Amino acid sequence: MNPKASFARLKEDPEYQNGVMRCIRCSICVPRCPSYRVYQNEADSPRGRVQMLRAVMEDRLEPSSNLEHHLDRCLGCRACEDVCPSAVPYGYLLDRARSALQPTEHARARKSVVRWGLTRIAATPWRVYWSAQLLRLVQALRLDRLAAWALRKVRPSAALRIELAPRVRGAPFRASEAEEKPGAAVQVLIGCVASGVLGDVQRATIRALERTGAEVSVPASQNCCGALHLHAGLMDEARELARGNIEAFDGEAEVCVNAAGCRLAMREYPSLFDGEPTWQERARQLVGRLRSVTELTGARLNGAATAPPPTRRRALVHEPCHEFNVQKERGKLEALLRQLGYEVETLPRGAGCCGSAGLFSALQPKAASDLLDRLLDDVQGRAPELVVSSNPGCQLLIEAGLRRRGIDLPVLDISEVIDRRTGGGEAEA
Amino acid sequence: MPIDPHIAASVRDIVGAENFLDHPAETQSYGFNSYPAFTEPGAVVMLRDVEQVQRVVAMLYDRDVPMVIRGSGTNVCGSALTAKGGVVLSLERMTRILELDTVSRFAVVEAGASVDQLQKLAIENGLLFTPNPGNVAAVTVGGIIGCNSSGDLALSYGTTRDFVLGLDLVIHDGSLIRLGARCRKDVTGYDLVRLVVGSEGTLGVVTQATLKLVDKPEAETSVLVGYDEEQVGAEACLALLEERLSPVALEFMDNQTLRAVEAAFKIGIPDRAKAVVLARFFGTREATAAAARRAEAVLVRAGGFYSTTTAPGESAEHLWRARHWAYPALARICPTLYGEDIRVPVRHFPAALRRIYEIAAEVGIHIACFAHAGDGQLHPLLLTDDSDPVQKERADRFVEGVIDMALEYGGSITGEHGIGVHKSRYVKRQLDTPALELTARVKKAFDPKGLFNPMIFPNVGPVPEPQNVRRLAVYTL
Q1: Domain locations in chain B?
Q2: Choosing a second label site near B216 at 20 to 30 A (CA), which of A332, A382, B105, B457?
Q3: Is the pTM above the cut of 0.95?
Q4: pLDDT of residue A323
Q5: Interior CA angle at A247 toward A244 and A252, to 5°?
Q6: What is the mean pLDDT of residues B327-345?
Q7: pLDDT of residue A109
Q8: Predicted pLDDT of residue B168
Q9: Which domain holds residue A80?
Q10: Structural domain ending residue among the three candidates A102, A124, A139
């Protein structure tokens, strides 16, 4: 379907149409928007984008490559939604608009690579596993550094992209590594990128849950949450992945999703099934059981609080945008770390998005690096001994940024911290 | 309508291709304000410094291209909408605070700097910049100068006009005129600074300003009191003013506003409340605590059934944010909002409020109303749908009704939002013919061809029809 026809269909969606109309252009969102901060162009602000969508809806504007360009520059951090007094459902609008906009000529080649990666690799666990193994090998042989060095003059953006790419930490994790236990109280989503690149984080999550008394199961039939697909406009693929997870996590167990971005995508599964009431109801049922690792372990950490103090005590928390802006899970990481014996400081929201934002850092490396630099300046100014996040994308990008600056500062997921403080012990935490 | 390619090339030469936008998706992103009308600029020029402003203005003026100056596009009466074939001069990248003198108490600021940025810097240095429009996070210094905006603290501190000590203005031929001084007293020649403040970009481009700062008080307190009836709340405001407690802000929100605000911010106002009055005091800890206690007693005695007071040092930010963001919160109820902006001598505030509801009932239109009650500044908001000709006609009748009412009370058709495309046709109801003629002569002295913001008074051009097509009637009041 051509973009014009796809947008015409969106006019039939009352949530979309009313969402667009509800923006009265007050601009309260604009100063909070990281992409506006980088590009300083109204078309790269949430207000500007919503007004472009309105112009398309009212046939004042053709859906074009230029519109696509500005929608692509959105990080999807949804800081705009957090402050919008008019309750404009920005994330909903963005995902639908991206889905309606088929890649235009100028972006087709770049996007076809992304789409191929998302549909052919991320959606299939064994391909994620072997791709991560391959990447691990490349990084072990330092071929990535060699490539970045070789490209730094001729293709600086490509070199930057390589430098900001995630570094595989530990062996990739496969669902088969853990057990699927029917009737277990907690089921764990291991994710796609997170399981491949941050296998150790998944292992730490499972150990942390078990040590705090939960019986844990890792459903073998689970797949990627679909967040990346949704944000790349692959609505149908995202819906199929959601269906797979709704089946895989069927039942009564609490579902631990340690990645904030994945958890948000799953919270929004019901909106993918308009017109399919049975699936929508099953999606809602799953949403009611979603938990973060912080929520599941927090109440059971009394023993850890009495353990000897950690060697690296001064922890700096980076609250991921999705957790802060949409799920409003504020202050929870900080509270948990205090419980674990850390001196904690949380990065103020002025620092905003780190620039990771799903595939943003891969697609817009320059802008991502601008945002990352601002955040890292703030991090360095506070001189912590440890940075803690709860989203794999943020963790990996902050880690890459620190590595680029030659700074030796561990960046851990909260589950790794819990794991180490409850007996998984490594010196730095 | 795109601009002439030769002109476009000349502008690109001055500002660089990356700072010249002419694709429809981008130009439409600059074709709106927070007023419900949409225009299609021929191009957008992102300016970085005063020299670029001078060169671009001189070149465009020479080629007869209409211009409109835009900061953050938050205006609610359409003061920065582009005429056909016109160009938007965007100052959003001129955001520097150039100087802060904490002894002489002034700041020199570029026009695109956000007011919020300036206010925060002032507070860090023990000072205040009190012009405080509701949407302070987004508005720019140039914007509040253009519209002479004020906000809640104007009750005690005055409007933006009272804070501009000097400014730099680029006029039609690109020359830079430095007006005013860096001191609070200056009677050298005509007060052209005060002329330019509030001129809504019709005289030239303000590129930077020297702004007065005042001392930050030691403490502040706030009092919120709820009422069963709107009229009782309005009378209570006068009762409080009679007490001579010098509130720095005295605000009013009606039932419809409260419902939207409560949905958006959940500040815990009981459902029973049909109106609230919110007052704020600055001073020493003791004085503000005592003033708040007395104010609460007076406001409750005047008929309030619910009250809450914040002590010195306790944050009342949630209450004030709810008040400041009432306007966009009302978009939850209805997305086509016209923010009216009439002012009456404060003695007539309760009567004017009553009359506003009567006019709304007479013409058959839904409204919400909030007010800077302490200085008689009322903001009835029309909750309407422009795509419905019946509602459109009723909305026009309502606007005319409240304007005439404000003038009968010796008030003004606009207190702080500005004239814009919304009010240009009504100016002649307030200003008589000699005043209009003099205004036209002043305009011509600055802008002989009438190219600066030609859509609005005093150069009333074609007013764009709002393109506001809403096909679903799902919003019910």
Answers
A1: 5-90, 97-215, 219-327, 334-418
A2: A382
A3: no
A4: 81
A5: 140
A6: 88
A7: 67
A8: 98
A9: 3-102
A10: A102
Split at pLDDT 50, 70, 90, the class of A121 is confident
Does residue A222 belong to the interface with chain B, where contact is any CB pair within 8 Å? no
* Neighbour count for residue B116 (Cβ, 10 Å): 17
Point out the domain boundary residue: A102, A117, A151. A102
Nearest to B381 by CA among B35, B105, B88: B35
Bigger pLDDT: A161 vs A90 = A90
Decide if A43 and B138 are in contact by the 8 Å CB cutoff.
no
pLDDT band at B471 (very low <50, low <70, confident <90, very high): very low
B452-473 mean pLDDT: 70
Q: In terms of CATH architecture, what is B334-418?
A: 2-Layer Sandwich (3.30)
Residue A325 banded pLDDT, cuts 50, 70, 90: confident
In angstroms, the CA A280 to CA A284 distance is: 6
Q: Does residue A41 fall inside a structural domain?
A: yes
Name chain A contacts of B337, Cβ cutoff 8 Å: 24
Closest chain A residue to B335 measured between Cα atoms?
Answer: A22
Please give the DSSP secondary-structure letter assigned to residue A167: P
String of DSSP letters for A248-269:
HT-SSSEEEE--HHHHHHHHTG
Measured between beta carbons, the chain A residues lying within 8 angstroms of B45 are none
Residue in A292, A345, A298 with CA at minimum distance from that of residue A322? A292
Query: B73–A87: do the CB atoms touch at under 8 Å?
Result: no
Q: Judged by CB atoms within 8 Å, which residues 63-92 of A form the interface with B?
A: 64, 66-67, 70, 84-87
Overall domain count for chain A: 2
Please check the confidence at residue A426 and state whether its pLDDT lies above 70: no
By CB atoms closer than 10 A (0-12, 13-18, 19+), residue A48 is buried
Nearest to B137 among A28, A61, A87 (CB): A28
Tell me if A215 is assigned to some domain.
no
Domain at B219-327: CATH code: 3.30.70.3450
CA distances to A169, A356, A360, A399, B305 from A197, in Å? 6, 15, 17, 13, 60
CB contact under 8 A, A31 and B30: no
Contact assessment for residue B209 and residue B106, using Cβ atoms and an 8 Å cutoff = no
What local confidence, expressed as pLDDT, does residue A311 receive?
A: 81
Q: What is the CATH number of the domain that holds A350?
A: 3.40.50.1860
Instruction: Classify residue A324: in a domain, yes or no.
Output: yes
What ipTM was reported for this prediction?
Answer: 0.94
Does A169 score more than 80 pLDDT? yes
CATH architecture of B97-215: 2-Layer Sandwich (3.30)
* Range among A73-77, A151-155, B206-210, B261-265 rated most confident: B206-210
User: Which of B29, B39, B149 has the highest number of chain A CBs within 10 A, making it the mutation to test binding with A?
Assistant: B29
In chain B, % helix, strand, coil (3-state, to 5) comes to: 40, 20, 40
Which residues have C-beta within 8 Å of that of residue A153, sequence separation ≥ 6? none
CATH of domain B5-90: 3.30.43.10
CB spacing of A27 vs B135 below 8 angstroms = yes
- Pairing status of strand B67-70 against strand B43-46: unpaired
CB B185 within 8 A of CB B142: no
Structure confidence by residue, pLDDT tens digits, B73-123: 999 999 999 988 899 999 999 999 999 999 999 999 999 999 999 999 999
**What percentage of chain B has pLDDT greater than the value 90?**
85
Q: Is residue A196 domain-resident? A: no
Euclidean distance between CA atoms B8 and B21, whole angstroms: 10
Per-residue pLDDT, B476 = 41
Structure tokens at A297: 């372990």
Domains B97-215 and B334-418 share a fold: no
